[in-house]
Amino acid sequence: MNLSKRIKALIEMVPYDKPVADIGSDHGYLLIGLCQKGFNKQCLGVENKIGPYKHLVENIKKENFTNIETSLSSGLTDVNENFKTIVIAGMGFQNICQIINDNIEKISFIEDFIIDSHNNTYELRKYLSNLGFYIFEEKCLIENEIFYELIHFKKGTRKYSELELKYGPFLLKEKNEDFINYYSKVLNKKEEIITNKFINKQRINELIIEINELKVIL
Ligand SMILES: C[S@@+](CC[C@H](N)C(=O)[O-])C[C@H]1O[C@@H](n2cnc3c(N)ncnc32)[C@H](O)[C@@H]1O
User: Given the CA of residue 102, which atom of ligand 1 is nearest to it?
Assistant: First the structure.
């Protein structure tokens, strides 16, 4: 199985000492890749749509891993207290937020969230910090011209600056090649927009602030 860079990076973030539930498993590649690397604790693949669920069951059957169970259900509904690690990857922030809020009492036993949100990572960091989770590790990467931020939260509290919430405390420190490439492109685009004579004064002022901020972090 040829795993994407993103899935491989997510797999590396999963703690090996406790069961894991993957919400929105789709093809099941994350759990299969994890078990192929030797993970032998209980796994639960959750899917709420019948098409991807059938695909998930078929893929897992082919691999013969007896520690992977599946559930056709929504979000955390079918997740019990054995599952201390929760992966939610490849969804937007609104959906991720709803999945957690719909079963909010379950955060009492969840120790780790590994999340790959396609948008609003500022909101995501803020939301999970407010729920009593801190950022344990982060990775960012570009694949097929998409910039991904993968964030591993653990139970506990830490305070973050606005800049850390927006760009990621670890990502800001590391500033890897993909981080620099992505935000340099964002900066170039904004510098291009600001030269457009049809934009209004308020937007120009906003762009000046955004451009200065990007120059600080790069
Ligand atoms: C874009 S795919 C991402 C698949 C995989 N997690 C990944 O990162 O490659 C999102 C999957 O999440 C499923 N999904 C969305 N909302 C869900 C929910 N509330 N409960 C379970 N699965 C959900 C969708 O059906 C879809 O298969």
Answer: 19
